[in-house]
Amino acid sequence: MSRPRIVIVGAGFAGYRTARTLERLSQGKADITLLNPTDYFLYLPLLPQVAAGILEPRRVTVSLTGTLRHTRLVLGEADEIDLDARTVRYADPEGGVGTLTYDRLVLAAGSVNKLLPIPGVAEHAHGFRGLPEALYLRDHVTRQVELAAGSDDPEDCRSRCTFVVVGAGYTGTEVAAQGQLFTDQLVRGQPRWEGVRPRWMLLDVAERVLPEMDERLSTTADRVLRQRGVDVRMGTSVQEATPTGVLLTDGEFVGTRTLVWCVGVRPDPLAESLGLPMERGRLLVEPTLQVPGRPELFACGDAAAVPDLTKPGSYTPMTAQHAWRQGRVAALNVAASLGRGEPRPYRHSDLGFVVDLGGVKAAANPLGIPLAGPVAGAVTRGYHLAAMPGNRVRVAADWLLDAVLPRQGVQLGLVRSWSVPLDTDSPELTKAPSAPARSAADGHGGASGSTGTGGKTPEPTGAARGRGTPERTDTSHKPAPGAEGDS
Ligand SMILES: Cc1cc2nc3c(=O)[nH]c(=O)nc-3n(C[C@H](O)[C@H](O)[C@H](O)COP(=O)(O)OP(=O)(O)OC[C@H]3O[C@@H](n4cnc5c(N)ncnc54)[C@H](O)[C@@H]3O)c2cc1C
Fold first, then answer.
1. Is 43 in the pocket of ligand 1 (CB under 6 A)?
2. Cross-strand partners of 63
3. Is the pLDDT of residue 116 over 90?
4. Would you state the pLDDT for residue 15?
5. With bands split at pLDDT 50, 70 and 90, how would you rate the model's confidence at 197?
6. Of the residues 8, 16, 36, 44, which should be mutated to test ligand 1's pocket, given the most ligand atoms within 8 Å of the CB?
7. What letter does residue 166 receive in the DSSP assignment?
C-alpha cells in the first residue's frame, strides 16, 4: 500500500500540534502536508505584548520548517475542499493556485474577527487577531501620542489620547491593561508632554470583565485595570463609530481615533463552506474529532464544535488550551484510522487560565487556585514560556530587557490602517492595495492579480506580481488566471 497522504489545513495551536504528533507517530511512513498562509506558528496569547512594545514580533512566532522537519509545508490558504474527490484547493501568497490530494484531512483553520452590525465599526475599528493588527496598533498608538503632544488644540489632544477597546474577554482586557502601561511609559519622562494624559477605556455589554471566566479572575483584573487608570465601563458598548469618535450605548460621545474591536471571534469561513452540519458556525465533530459520516475528515481547535464530555450538551470553548490538546488527539485518531492504535475521545480536565495584565500583574487560577499580583505574574510568564513550542529564550530576553530599559517609542509605519481591515477572512495577512491595471509590457502581471477563487484569496502585492508565479514541482500547481504567465 502506498504511503497515506495526510493534509492539515492551518498551523495554529491545533494544526501545529497535529503535525508534530503525527511526525512522531508515523515515523516516516506517511506523507504529512501542512497548508498555512504563513511560514510560522503564531503564539497568539502573547500578541498584546507585541502591541505594547514589550516583545518584538518575531518572538511570538515559531518557524514551521525549523521545527517540523518531517512535514511538507505548503504556503497558501485553502479556498475550496472537495470532500468527494478528496482534494483541497489553495491560493499561494503570490496569486498562484494549487491542489492537494488527501487520504486524511485535518481542518484546523482557527477563527477570524467577529463583526456586529453596528454603523461605522467595520470602517473605523481594527481587530486583534493577527500579527499585522498588533504591529498596526503599536505604531498607531505611538503616533497618536506623538501627534497629541504636538497639537495646540486641547480637544484634538484629548481625543488622540483616548483609546477605546470593546470586548472585555481575555484579549480586550489584556490589550487595555498593557496599552495603558505602554502609553504611560511613552509620556513619562517627556517634560514637554506634560499635558498629555493617555486614557484607555474598556467596554463590554457584560456585567463584569472576563465574563466567561471564574469570578475571582474577573475581580482581580477589574481591580488592576481601575488602579491603573483604565476607564472600565461594563454594561456599555458602541452604538456608532465615526472617524472622530464613538457614540456609546449610554448616549455619551467619546472623541477618539482608536477603536480596538475584541468582541470575540467566529470560526474561519472555510468550515462553513463545506456544507456540513455546524454548531454556531463551527464544524460539528464527534468526540473523536471526526466529522459524522466522513471518517477521513477531522476538525479541531476554534473551527470545530467538539462535544465537552465534562459538560454534556455543551462544546469546548475556543481557547488555545483546547486547540493544543485537541491537536494531539486528532493526530492519534488519524493514526488509529490508518491502523495504528485505537481511536479515543477528546476529554479534558480544566487546568485553569492565565491573564497577563502587564508589569508584574496578572490574574491566574492554575489548577483552580486563584492567584493575583506578582505571584500570578510569575506563574503567567512561566506558563507561556512552557507552552510556547519554541523561541523561549528570545521571549525571556525581551522580558528581561523590558524590565531594565524604557520601551522604544518609535513607530515604523509599515502596516497601514487600510491593510488591516476588521472585516477579513485572513487576519494573519495584510491586505494589499487594489492596484490599477497594468499591461504585461511593463513587467507586471494581469489586471488584478486575483485568482478568481473567492473571498479567501489574498491579493498578491505589486512586488509579488512583478516576480510572477514561481515554478513549482507540485504537478497540480498552476498559475492563477490573470497572473503572469497565464495568458
Ligand atoms: C490576542 C489573543 C489572545 C489570546 N489569548 C489566549 C490565552 O491567553 N489563552 C487561551 O487559551 N487562548 C487564548 N486565545 C485564543 C487562542 O489563541 C485560540 O483559541 C487558538 O489560537 C485556537 O487555535 P486554532 O489552532 O484553532 O487556531 P489558530 O491558532 O488561530 O490557527 C489557525 C491557523 O490556520 C491558518 N488558516 C486560517 N485559514 C486558513 C486557510 N483557509 N487555509 C490554510 N490555513 C488557514 C491561520 O493562518 C493559522 O495559522 C487568544 C486569542 C487571541 C486572538
1. no
2. 40
3. no
4. 98
5. confident
6. 44
7. E
Domains 5-37+76-111+266-337 and 121-263+352-419 in one fold: yes
pTM, to two decimals = 0.89
121-263+352-419 CATH choice from 3.40.50.280, 3.40.50.880, 3.40.630.30, 3.50.50.100: 3.50.50.100
Angle, CA of 466, 423 and 438, to the nearest 5°: 20
Ligand 1 within 6 A of 109 CB?
yes
3-state helix, strand, coil in the chain (%, to 5): 35, 20, 45
- Radius of gyration for the chain, computed over Cα atoms and rounded to the nearest angstrom: 23
Are the C-beta atoms of 7 and 35 separated by less than 8 Å?
yes
Ligand 1 close to Cβ of residue 268 (< 6 A): yes
The predicted pLDDT at position 453 comes to 34
44 lines ligand 1 (CB under 6 A): yes
CATH T-level assignment (fold) for domain 5-37+76-111+266-337: FAD/NAD(P)-binding domain (3.50.50)
Domain ranges for the chain: 5-37+76-111+266-337, 121-263+352-419
* Beta carbon of 94 within 6 Å of any ligand 1 atom: no
Atom number of ligand 1 nearest to Cα 319: 19
Local structure of 15: helix, strand or coil:
helix
pLDDT, one tens digit per residue, over 270-301 is: 998 899 999 988 999 999 999 999 999 999 99
Please work out whether the CB of residue 128 comes within 6 Å of at least one atom of ligand 1: yes
Q: Which atom of ligand 1 is nearest to the CA of 268?
A: 38
pLDDT tens digits, 36-69: 999 999 999 999 999 999 999 999 999 999 999 9
- The alpha carbon of 83 and the centre of ligand 1 are apart by a number of angstroms equal to 24
